[in-house]
Amino acid sequence: MRQQRRRPQLLACLLLALAVLVGPSAVPSAAFVPADGVRSVAVPAAAGEAAAPLPDPAVLAELLKKVSRSGIGKVGLVVTTTDGTVLTDRSADTPLTPASTMKVLSTMTALATLSADRTFATRVLDAGSGRIVLVGGGDPLLTDKTSTSTYKLASLQKLAKATAAALKASGTRKVALRYDASLFSGPLWNSSWKSSWKGWEAKVAALEINSGKVSGGRASANPAKTAARAFAKRLAAAGIRVTSVASGRATAAGTELARVTSTTLERIIHRTLRQSDNVAAETLSRHAAIANGRAGSFTGAAANVKAWLSARGLWTSGLKLVDGSGLAPANKLTATVLAAAVRIAVTQDAFAPIVDGFPVAGESGTLKSRFDDPSEKAGRHVVHAKTGTLSGLASLAGYVTTADGATLVFAEIGNKASSYYRVYNWLDREAAVLARCGCR
Known about the structure:
Elements: H1 8-22, H2 57-65, E1 72-81, E2 86-90, H3 102-113, E3 121-128, E4 131-135, H4 156-169, E5 174-180, H5 223-237, E6 241-247, E7 255-261, H6 265-275, H7 278-291, H8 298-311, H9 335-347, H10 352-357, E8 383-390, E9 393-401, E10 407-417, H11 420-436
Helix pairs in contact: 3-6, 3-7, 3-9, 4-5, 6-7, 7-8
């Protein structure tokens, strides 16, 4: 449905009035309210949308077939109602590379495993003998300089100021700095990612600043070491001399000197989906794996998402997961699985942050500049979906409100294309067909 913005207090009053007038069954389910006080109105449950006429499956299928897929070698498509009734599909059970629509699954797994208000702390411990340890807690939005972004609450600048104050209070003006990024394990770089990306695509570490990037947008070769050196400079500016910087391990006996804390998991998810943040998706996937007793690594995180899908009957033969961001071409999912995950998100209150994080066509995130020609215009403002893009392929998974007011769930994947722009046209034009329905 068209995204609407209201003050939470006004929304609450309207819902209460509606409940009094027509009974509790008419009140929409609760939904995520971002820290800025505005949110998308909750997607209606299947029972609530029964009055809205659905497309005729045969008519819908014919209209979708008319959308050109020239230059695209393989496609997968499914359109369903929110209760799972399939209206049309095309090779929906063929495993294809999903690109960043994979983030829908990794963030849903994280949200299902961790509390929505979970935060992640970066700490400094006193290790004794003039040594302090900077301990990474897996905050994917940690910055060096304090940010004005409401998403990026924690910075090394704040942490250094608090640490310096604690050290000075004890009479300490000189320290050796150690850094501990041992919360996560395994390689920082996924072997399934293209080696040509190494200079630009960030590695994944439990201690990382500025999304793993250094000057010029290049990727840090050693994110934890980069963060530690930046912290040492911040300490020096705050009046604490740092004699050395090296890797080390914190011990349970260390006394905490200071900490900075991230925003909540639901806020991180909102930004991750809107901006398709690879580092954040990988980091959250590791946190979920650790919470379930698995390794905080690419392998452990992928196994954890697989287990989440399996528990819901969504894991089938031919599927393959090797990361949490969707950067790996080796990932294989089906349109059926992606649509099933979206249906869970739009019908279960616990996953409201996922729905609210979907980019909106013509409005926000990675869909802000999409649906940009006349044949796609109907999808603007009513298509809410996660995007995915890699060389020669693209995908789109989310929901759309038809012209008749019905909510449809869809997932589309196009692989082996001459250009991902060709796939964009196919994805957006097919979603626009859904928006124009009708279709009877």
